[in-house]
Amino acid sequence: MTLPSRRRSRAGFTLLEMMAVILLVSIVFFVAVDFYRQLTRASAHAADLTRNARRAVALADRMALDLEASMLLKKPKDVDPLQHPWLFLGAAEPGSASSDRMKFVTRSANPRTTAGAESDLQMVAWLATPADDGSLEVRRWSAPRLPEGLDRDFPPVEDAYLVARGLAAFGVRFLDENGEWKPSWDSSELVDADKLPLAVEITLAFAPPEPAVATADAAAAEPEVYTRRVLLPLRALDLKQLITGQEEEKDATQDKDKDEDDRKSGHGGKEEAQACVTVQQCLEKNPQAAAAAAEHGLSEVLQSIGDQCFSAVAGSLPPGLSLQGCE
Hints:
Blueprint: H1 15-68, E1 88-91, E2 101-106, E3 122-130, E4 136-143, E5 161-175, E6 181-182, E7 185-186, E8 199-206, H2 216-219, E9 225-231, H3 239-264, H4 279-285, H5 287-295, H6 299-304, H7 310-313
Antiparallel strand pairs: 1-2, 1-7, 2-3, 3-4, 4-5, 5-6, 5-8, 8-9
């Protein structure tokens, strides 16, 4: 006689079910880890791009500080040009569309407290030189006083201190009085003799950050290019003309005082000079000239001198603007 078999209750999971759960948990875990890694890489890449943008702005601002304080004295006719130390030079490699070196005089120096007299003038040079890793380095050199004569040579690289490294591109262009951008500038040559550019355009780019994982898209990534245009507020100064003009202004002031005394005493006098026509008012009278200035990138230059009398700056304006009725 056989006893009836007892059914055993099944409490728990089978081995197959446990393996399925472990597999699903592992997939979710690896997906989450991969998402976190991608998010971390994207955040680091964005931080590097922001850092490059800040470095580009800081470098352009530092160069603009020197350029905005640049000045140039015209060579007197009775002075040997080789003995004239004032210079504005932008040098480009043959066939290049922009300069990679500049040398000019600025008034941005802070005179030191010394026993001898010292001015705020200094000679400044900016250099873009290749680095060992194939990138570019930007260096600045300065001298606290002007040379005794004309010196068109650039200082050695080791004498200039490093301002920025890791650049992928660097170039400088110069705007002339005809509204054309030139790749180089030399105030000691006959073409641009005794002239300063109206503006300087700085173009630079830092090498893009290397991605954590090399991909086809990452290899094709190009550096972000930053452009900064700096207006040069001063024109080349004619020291002899300035001295003569000051003497004439002094004589005119004396004549004006004399006329005022004569008027008060009943002996008559000169009429008051009429208000001058400003550059902005002249452009409003000549809309075609304003359109031509915008086409050649001169709008910012003209706006910067819009409040000045047209008669005072007419000689330095580009001749192609054809401004009429502004005298």
